[in-house]
Amino acid sequence: MDHSYIxxxxxxxxxxxxRLAEEAKRIxxxxxxxxxIDIMDGHFVPNLTLGPKAVAAIKRSTSLFLDVHVxxxxxxDYVEAFAQAGADRITFHFEATEDVEETLRFIRxxxxxxxxxxxxxxxxxxxxxxxxxxxxxxxxTVSPGFxxxxxxxxMLEKVKMTREYxxxxxxxxxxxxxxxxxxADSFPPFNIQVDGGxxxxxxxxxxxxxxxxxxxxxxxxxxxxxxKGIQLLRNSS
Length: 237
Ligand code: DX5
Ligand code: ZN
Hints:
Layout: E1 7-10, H1 20-29, E2 34-40, H2 52-61, E3 65-71, H3 79-85, E4 89-93, H4 100-109, E5 113-118, E6 136-140, H5 155-168, E7 191-195, H6 200-209, E8 213-216, H7 218-221, H8 226-234
Parallel strand pairs: 1-8, 2-3, 3-4, 4-5, 5-6, 6-7, 7-8
Helix pairs in contact: 1-2, 2-3, 5-6
The structure holds D-xylitol-5-phosphate (DX5) and zinc ion.
């Protein structure tokens, strides 16, 4: 994978919630590609975090891309609130709604990117149907709900199968299917994100299997030099 396509999004869940604006600035100064914001409802996952008001506060303190990962039931009902709060992408869970396609369409209608996330126990077979309808697939590499968990190596196969499928059917960024007459690499690769337990070693394994968007909380926030940590992840392959 060409390194210019590898993006690193620190997860602000591992930051200091009493100083969200400062944390956002620190992430920006460290050279990240965006900020990953975890939204949890205490039902879809057994934890509670932030809502649209906190996303709006983060938006005011940075110009970075806001990658909002909603781990909530009925995500459709909250799309507008998070879009208005400044989300640049909303990624919701396949398992959290009956209206996956409708929710993807609605997010795109709000002029932001639509991502679709899959819990570890959901099989690869559920993914292909949505590749041409979204901007990113998030393959969870831990059970969603908490930062600081250990990476699940079994998820590497799901990443590999997703990348192979995209390559076989020439699916590129934003679900564009590249025409046979054009070289497939004239479009950036389809975004495959991994989230949970990402550190130097696991990032490398994920990138080798075809992931290009890396979310990292605990590992990055524990680095003495945040910027260097981001660089190390970005250079994974
Ligand atoms: C887990 C969240 C993650 C979490 C990752 O449910 O979706 O974004 O913050 O944190 P680490 O890198 O610590 O596993
Ligand atoms: Zn997340």
